[in-house]
């Protein structure tokens, strides 16, 4: 999900032998034409390591819901709420709660990480944990206030899986690229220690706070030029691909096959983290932010390592960033209708598909009108979309208008 402050969308190396010994055999098989299943994944060892961790809320864990109600979602940035002036921060929290009361969503996606430099990656967080500096421990406070003072029934923590910027003492291997244009700063997913650190951050969050779900950030992605980290290249070779040739030649004939393996690797990593967290809180559901282009154009898996088939296989919800201004779509209605059609191929009743709408045009730094947002919500509802949210929520400027959004949500019921 683009950070509104971005102004734009977008350890040391071990020997090959020791790395391969630790990673194991990376054989794979195709489950069907669109997806790959990796028989071995480093997250398997991490899952075993945490399989006996006692649940934090064992005696109070709620029953697992068989079907979640149609979601009306506020996607909230705590970066907007945080203020070094604690009196102002308190006013911000109160204003946010009042706004939630007015809009009356049933679901909140609540940012748990901090991105003060607006680059889309987390170098701080809003909760206590063992690895990443705490900007301020306010996630718990806001979570508690939403529970106590609003009718919200489902709160998801919005968290990155890979887009972490660790303190320098960690000497983390990050995603490397041969491309000139770079995406978010991300830890290399092909290093098991990296995966363990990320898992532990999630565990620290979930052991402190009762939640209904996790929204994975839009960082679960690798381009056709990524990851060129030496450990990643070794894995590609183990999968049977000529890594050095392919990472420098995105038009290589085997590029889609390699991307399908990367997609499987990333999504199986996320699913493993989800499995570990569900041992702590069995009711948890998991959504992932997905780029609209990856939904509309299956061939774009080569550029994103994201796919519809894999997403609906590994996550409870596909939270599509249905943002035509960001994608520079000429016909917005056609853009939405194509997204719906593509999603229905995998989710016919759209019970597992979330449409996240943009309320800011980041290309021109302008606000999208309340009337347009209302029209879009109405259009989506008419065509069977059940779960609708928007981003970002700006409580300071009352954008979108709380009263008009309340009406739009109500009319979409």
Describe the fold and architecture.
The protein has an eight-stranded parallel beta barrel with strand order 3-4-7-8-9-10-11-14, surrounded by four helices. Strands 1-2 form a two-stranded antiparallel ribbon. It has a two-stranded antiparallel ribbon with strand order 5-6. The protein has 16 helices and 14 strands. By secondary structure, the chain is α/β, with parallel strands linked by helices. β7 (154-159), α6 (192-206) and β8 (213-216) form a beta-alpha-beta unit. The two termini are 26 Å apart. The protein has helices spanning 16-23, 43-49, 78-81, 86-103, 139-149, 192-206, 230-238, 243-248, 255-280, 292-296, 301-304, 308-314, 324-327, 332-344, 370-382, 402-411; strands spanning 28-32, 35-38, 72-76, 107-111, 113-114, 124-125, 154-159, 213-216, 285-291, 317-322, 353-358, 360-361, 366-367, 387-391. α4 packs parallel to α5 (139-149), α4 (86-103) packs parallel to α16 (402-411) and α15 (370-382) packs parallel to α16 (402-411).
What labels would you give this structure?
413 residues; alpha/beta; 8-stranded parallel barrel; two-stranded antiparallel sheet; globular
Kindly state the percentage of residues in helix: 25-40%
Shape: globular
Mean pLDDT: 90
Total DSSP helices: 16
Number of strands: 14
Structural class: alpha/beta
């Amino acid at each position: 999900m683009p950070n509104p402050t971005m102004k734009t969308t977008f350890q040391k190396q071990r020997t090959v032998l020791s790395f391969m010994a630790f990673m194991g055999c990376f054989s794979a098989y195709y489950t069907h034409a669109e997806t790959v299943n990796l028989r071995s994944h480093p997250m398997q060892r991490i899952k075993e390591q945490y399989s006996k961790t006692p649940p934090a809320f064992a005696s109070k864990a709620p029953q697992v819901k068989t079907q979640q109600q149609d979601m009306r979602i506020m996607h909230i940035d705590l970066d907007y709420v945080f203020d070094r002036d604690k009196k102002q921060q308190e006013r911000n929290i109160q204003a946010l709660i009042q706004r939630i009361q007015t809009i009356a969503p049933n679901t909140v996606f609540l940012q748990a990480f901090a991105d003060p430099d607006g680059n889309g990656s987390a170098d701080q967080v809003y909760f206590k944990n063992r690895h990443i500096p705490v900007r301020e421990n306010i996630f718990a406070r806001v979570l508690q206030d939403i529970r106590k003072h609003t009718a919200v029934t489902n709160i998801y923590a919005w968290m990155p899986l890979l887009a972490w910027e660790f303190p320098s003492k960690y000497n983390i291997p990050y995603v490397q690229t041969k491309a000139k244009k770079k995406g978010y700063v991300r830890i290399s997913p092909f290093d098991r220690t990296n995966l363990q650190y990320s898992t532990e951050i999630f565990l620290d969050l979930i052991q402190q706070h009762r939640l209904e779900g996790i929204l994975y950030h839009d960082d679960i992605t690798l381009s056709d030029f990524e990851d060129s980290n030496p450990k990643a290249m070794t894995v590609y070779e183990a999968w049977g691909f000529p890594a050095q040739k392919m990472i420098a030649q995105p038009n290589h004939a085997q590029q889609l096959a390699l991307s399908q393996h990367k997609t499987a690797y990333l999504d199986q990593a996320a699913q493993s983290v989800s499995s570990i967290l569900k041992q702590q809180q069995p009711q948890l559901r998991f959504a992932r932010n997905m780029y609209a282009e990856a939904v509309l154009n299956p061939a774009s898996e080569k550029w994103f390592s994201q796919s519809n088939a894999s997403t609906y296989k590994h996550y409870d919800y596909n939270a599509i960033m249905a943002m035509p201004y960001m994608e520079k779509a000429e016909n917005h209605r056609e853009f939405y209708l194509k997204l719906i059609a593509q999603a229905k191929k995998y989710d016919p009743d759209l019970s597992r598909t979330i449409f996240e709408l943009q309320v800011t045009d980041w290309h021109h730094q302008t606000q999208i009108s309340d009337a347009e947002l209302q029209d879009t919500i109405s259009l989506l509802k008419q065509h069977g979309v059940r779960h609708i949210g928007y981003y970002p929520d700006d409580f300071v400027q009352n954008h979108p208008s709380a009263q008009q959004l309340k009406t739009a949500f109500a009319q979409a019921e």
